[in-house]
Design brief:
466 residues, alpha+beta, six-stranded antiparallel beta sheet
Length: 466
């Protein structure tokens, strides 16, 4: 019986070993098959992320796309002398810094000017890390000598923000923009006209942060931007009157924020949530703003564009500027399919206004001779993945261009889209979101005798990031 038990135990152990060997062989084969499959599977194209405002392609002319910012990595012959001059200047100011340090120590106030100059020179070369280091040290010296929250820091802060923006370090851009506004508000209060530039700067940053999807509460960005623009508009009117040249600029930026609210209403709804409402109410009181913390959309943009028309009626007369402001209101109605008939009448009013002027046919052609992508006051690349939490910098992405041909109806809708140039499986998959965005977009239609008509064969160049 004992022998029988031993034999059965041996048999069990042998079976276990056999199963283990079988599993090892199977696992190894599975891993080999997986590696083999991975080797032959095609790479999935990167998703399209940003889409730039398109540029019209005219026969025989190369479209002028906006110049992309970036560091100076290669210096051509034409810029070699300038480059050498900058390097020599940096060396000279560095020697000056060393001399001041030897005589007055590391925190001598006389170091500030030389360090700020070095920062500016480094910035011109695209050496933003070195520039930030110089600006930061200059600012620390200023704070030690003059106090923590003095206005003398503001030019240095602005330069640092410019470098962090060029590096697309959004956390630091956000931090220093808010710090800059804190100093200005602490010094001037909310009704002093000297705070206007700080209001506009922080509002513009909030709109930029929204467009790149930076931050957990994008609706708060829109709320902040609208309250800041309204404050700037109010202060301009109170202190400088309704014909101040900054007024239409701020009003169009307010309309731009209203457009984003209309496009992404779910973000505006965030502001009503308890965790954001008290914060925004506090910010509203800080700005002495009487408007709601909930950002406005269609009616806010409409009111802003009507105010621009009113501005041009009161400012020194310019037929083209007035006609253009009237046209933008028509664009607004066309963009949202609201008051469509009224949009046509508004276009006709602008067209008639220009045709009554000397050289009116040429002036009218400037506004209505070519279809125009709407809205005209948004010039930043469109984020096609606004609902994604990924805020990867555009500088870290690949970019390319594509020419597209299409028709535009009398209602501004896009039809008959055709991709020009070679089409591959890869770019076909990548450009699918671009084509979808184009078909959903609106253009200002061309006018014949002042009335919108369908027009065909328009070619625009699009630059996109993926």
């Amino acid at each position: 019986m004992r022998i029988l038990v031993n034999r059965r135990g041996h048999n069990i152990r042998a079976s276990i070993i056999a199963v283990a060997v079988f599993l090892c062989i199977s696992l190894a084969k599975a891993q080999e098959d997986e590696a083999s499959n991975a080797a032959v599977e095609p790479e999935i194209p990167a998703r399209l992320r940003y889409l730039e405002v398109p540029v019209v392609v005219e026969p025989g002319l190369e479209p002028a796309l906006p110049i992309l910012p970036g560091p100076i990595l290669n210096v051509d012959a034409e810029r070699e002398a300038e480059f050498i001059s900058l390097v020599n200047s940096i060396q000279q100011y560095s020697e000056t810094v060393e001399l001041i340090e030897e005589q007055g120590g590391a925190w001598d106030i006389n170091l500030e000017e030389s360090l700020a100059t070095i920062g500016g020179l480094e910035q011109q070369q695209g050496n933003h890390i070195e520039a930030i280091a110089a600006f930061s040290r200059a600012m620390q010296i200023n704070r030690i000598a003059n106090g923590l929250y003095t206005l003398e820091q503001l030019p240095l802060l602005e330069k640092m923000i410019d470098s962090y923006t060029a590096m697309e370090n959004w956390e630091q851009v956000d931090l220093f923009n808010n710090y800059l506004f804190y100093i200005a508000h602490r010094t001037y209060g909310v009704e002093d006209p000297r705070i206007i530039s700080s209001l506009e700067r922080l509002a513009s940053w909030n709109m930029e942060a929204f467009s790149i999807g930076f931050g957990d509460a994008l609706g708060v960005r829109l709320s902040n931007a609208q309250m800041l623009y309204r404050s700037a508009i109010r202060i301009v009117v109170v202190h400088f009157g309704e014909t101040d040249q900054r007024l239409p600029v701020f009003l169009r930026k307010l309309a731009s924020s209203a457009y984003q609210v209309a496009m992404y209403p779910e973000y505006a709804a965030q502001v009503a949530q308890p965790e954001f409402r008290s914060q925004q109410e506090s910010f509203r009181r800080k700005l002495n703003e009487g408007s709601s913390i909930i950002p406005g959309s269609f009616q806010t943009g409409e009111a802003a564009l009507l105010a621009v028309i009113d501005y041009h009626n009161k400012a020194p007369y310019s037929a083209y500027a007035l006609a253009e402001s009237i046209t933008h209101l028509g664009d607004w109605y066309m963009l949202f399919d609201r008051r469509r008939r009224q949009a046509e009448d508004i276009y006709f009013e602008a067209w008639e206004l220009l045709r009554a002027e000397e050289g009116g046919e040429y002036l009218a052609d400037q506004l209505f001779g070519q279809v125009v992508p709407l809205p005209t006051f948004v010039d930043t690349p469109k984020n096609l993945e606004m609902r994604s939490s990924d805020t990867k910098a555009r500088s870290a992405m690949e970019h390319d261009i594509v020419d597209l041909s299409f028709s535009v109806t009398s209602l501004g809708a896009v039809r008959d889209v055709e991709m020009l140039g070679e089409e591959t499986e890869e770019n076909k998959m990548r450009l699918s979101p671009l084509l979808r965005a184009l078909r959903m977009s609106k253009f200002r239609p061309t006018l014949i005798e002042g009335r919108p008509v369908r027009s065909d064969g328009h070619v625009f160049r699009y630059r996109y990031w993926y």
